[in-house]
Amino acid sequence: MFSRLALRSVAARQSTPTALVARGSATEVSGLRDEKNFPRPVRGEPGKVRLGFIPEEWFQFFHAKTGVTGPYTFGVGLATYLFSKEIYVMEHEYYTGLSIFVMIYYASTKFGPKLAEFLDKEVDNVETNWNAGRLSTIKSLEDSIAGEKEAQWRAQGQELLIEAKKENVLLQLEAAYRERALTAYQEVKRRLDFQLEKTLLERRIAQKNMVDWIVANVTKAITPDQEKQAMDRCIADLAALAKN
Amino acid sequence: MAFGDYPKEYNPAVHGPYDPARYYGKPDTPFGQLKLNEIGSWFGRRSKTPSAFMGACSRVWWRWQHKYVQPKKVGIAPFFQLLVGSMTFFYAINYGKMKHHRNYKYH
């Protein structure tokens, strides 16, 4: 509780001057993020060492002037000087240190590689665990994007289908229209044929009646006198024919 | 500048995430690239306040951390460095007592 309070007060104290500083120096500098001179720090590989702990750079510093053996010569020379002048005093702890050094040397050469392998594997495990959630989220998002794309593709297919269905409906409408037009044509033709036949029939009947009437009247109008004249005429004609 | 604050020169808008191993002030010639006769003036230009000294120590500490301790797969080197460093340190502070164990009177 108190520690949290203390932290909060520290944060409160810190925020104002920092903000002021930020504002103050923003006027001096351009105020833009300088990525070239101040890149985001990256986690690098560990620095190289020789003999277990001495930085490689120190050896490189000697290398230009004295070659490869120079730093070792310097080291041995320095140690000899320190021992010789008893600046480094070889008292009892020195021999304890030697035995401890032998033990550490033995342990680090014997178990070091195995331990390093195990620890590297653990580091990888931890990293994999930490990344797992992020990676699975990314994967699920990618999957859902792919699903969305497929759904869009399907929707396009659906549009095509609807287009085809509309065309189909139009075709059906056209067919129905043609069918009805044909029906209308046939019906009209049937009626016209009926009218034609009726007219013809009526005319035939009228003709027949007229002929009957005329024949009847004509027959009625023929007198026995005329009949006799005709018969005589016929006989005369026959006689004339017979004469020839 | 109180305890726990960022350095005055640090501007988050320009410098991005704070790197404790970095000096955000005006850069001078690196010490390793100095000529011998420039060393005096170089030290003359340094700020010698306690907070500047603490800041320099902090940067050294974080540079060591970033180089040897914080990488993903470190070896045993930082532990050995700590061991050797502490041995040297404790030898130095105990030197007055160690002196009495000298075996030779004349060197």
Automatic annotation (TrEMBL), chain A:
Its main location: mitochondrion. GO terms for cellular component: mitochondrial inner membrane; proton-transporting ATP synthase complex. InterPro entries: ATP_synth_Bsub_B/MI25, ATP_synth_F0_suB. Keywords: CF(0), Hydrogen ion transport, Ion transport, Membrane, Mitochondrion, Mitochondrion inner membrane, Transport. Signal peptide: none annotated. One of its GO terms (molecular function) is proton-transporting ATP synthase activity, rotational mechanism. Gene3D superfamilies: 1.20.5.2210. It is found in: Mitochondrion; Mitochondrion inner membrane. Subunit b, of the mitochondrial membrane ATP synthase complex (F(1)F(0) ATP synthase or Complex V) that produces ATP from ADP in the presence of a proton gradient across the membrane which is generated by electron transport complexes of the respiratory chain. ATP synthase complex consist of a soluble F(1) head domain - the catalytic core - and a membrane F(1) domain - the membrane proton channel. These two domains are linked by a central stalk rotating inside the F(1) region and a stationary peripheral stalk. Belongs to the eukaryotic ATPase B chain family. F-type ATPases have 2 components, CF(1) - the catalytic core - and CF(0) - the membrane proton channel. CF(1) and CF(0) have multiple subunits. This is ATP synthase subunit b.
From TrEMBL, chain B:
The chain crosses the membrane at residues 74-93. It is found in: Mitochondrion membrane. Its main location: mitochondrion. One of its GO terms (cellular component) is mitochondrial membrane. Keywords: ATP synthesis, CF(0), Hydrogen ion transport, Ion transport, Membrane, Mitochondrion, Transmembrane, Transmembrane helix, Transport. Pfam families: WRW (PF10206). One of its GO terms (biological process) is proton motive force-driven mitochondrial ATP synthesis. GO terms for molecular function: proton-transporting ATP synthase activity, rotational mechanism. Belongs to the ATPase F chain family. This is ATP synthase subunit f, mitochondrial. It comes from Vanessa tameamea.
